[in-house]
Write a structure and sequence with these properties.
Length: about 100
C-alpha cells in the first residue's frame, strides 16, 4: 500500500481596487422645511387616531425631539442673522 501525499496548492491573487471607480451612494439630506413638515404629519396623524395608545409615548417622544431640534436650529439661525446685521451696521458706521 502506498500513501499519496496531498499537495497543498496556494494561490495568491492580487486585487487592485480603484477607489475612484467605486460608485458611492448619493447621500440623502432633509431640509429644515421637510423636518417641519414631518412634525406636521405626526401631529395630523395623531389627531386622526392613526396611532394606538401604546404607540403614543414613542411617537410623542419623537415629535417632541423633532420640535425641540427645529426650535433650537431656528434660534441659532436668528442669532446668526442678528450677528451678521450687527457686523454690517458696525462696518457701515466705521467708515463715516
Amino acid at each position: 500500500m502506498s500513501k499519496k501525499k496531498a499537495e497543498k496548492v496556494t494561490e495568491t491573487v492580487d486585487v487592485e481596487t480603484n477607489v475612484d471607480a467605486v460608485e458611492q451612494p448619493e447621500v440623502q439630506t432633509l431640509s429644515l422645511q421637510e423636518l417641519d413638515q414631518l412634525a406636521q404629519v405626526i401631529d395630523l396623524a395623531s389627531g386622526r387616531g392613526a396611532f394606538r395608545g401604546a404607540e403614543l409615548q414613542t411617537v410623542g417622544g419623537l415629535y417632541n425631539k423633532l420640535v425641540s431640534f427645529l426650535t433650537m436650529v431656528k434660534a441659532q439661525q436668528e442669532a446668526a442673522a442678528e450677528a451678521q446685521e450687527n457686523e454690517s451696521a458696525e462696518a457701515g458706521t466705521g467708515e463715516a
